[in-house]
Design goal:
About 45% of the residues lie in helices and about 10% in strands. By secondary structure, the chain is mostly helical. The strands form 2 sheets. It has a two-stranded antiparallel sheet with strand order 1-2. A two-stranded parallel ribbon has the order 3-4. It is globular, with a radius of gyration of 17 Å.
Length: about 160
């Protein structure tokens, strides 16, 4: 879909990162693509990918800044696939040192963590960061703490 939106002749750069030490507990699936030629690719299942994104939202801090694109992606997940693999999120958090408790991460723990993160969020800063990348800037007008608290209530922990 993205390829159709790129004007002919425009150069597109794609950053590819490989996790050489991923935490366990994730599932993969084979997906088939038809362009540029038919091929298959093995990818993590969406609830596990969502766990990776949620780990970034809850744990990634870059010079005390959050990444606006992570919040943009959160909106996509909540809209299209709100199932979160909680065990995989816990394993990612343990690996990064952000969950050291002896008990497992529960749905209630997660809800508390995401609410705390949202309540500390600099909404104007994440809007500014995402603005150059969105076609319709008015779509960001609804971004607020209340907006993010509401959409994260739709996340189903599996």
């Amino acid at each position: 879909e993205i390829a159709r939106q790129i004007p002919p002749g425009q150069v597109v750069k794609i950053k590819l990162e490989v996790d050489t030490d991923p935490p366990g507990g994730f599932s993969t699936e084979t997906r088939y693509l038809l362009q540029p030629i038919p091929f298959s690719v093995r990818t993590c299942c969406l609830p596990d990918l969502f766990a990776g994104k949620m780990h970034a939202l809850l744990c990634r801090r870059w010079k005390n800044r959050v990444k606006g694109r992570d919040w943009y992606d959160l909106v996509w997940y909540c809209t299209h696939h709100p199932e979160l693999h909680l065990t995989h999120l816990e394993q990612r958090m343990r690996q990064s040192g952000h969950w050291a408790k002896s008990q497992n991460l529960t749905k209630e723990d997660f809800k508390e963590l995401i609410a705390t993160t949202i309540n500390e969020l600099d909404i104007k800063q994440i809007r500014r960061e995402v603005l150059p990348f969105v076609r319709n800037p008015d779509a960001l007008a609804v971004w607020s703490r209340e907006f993010f608290l509401d959409i994260t209530r739709q996340i189903r922990c599996i």
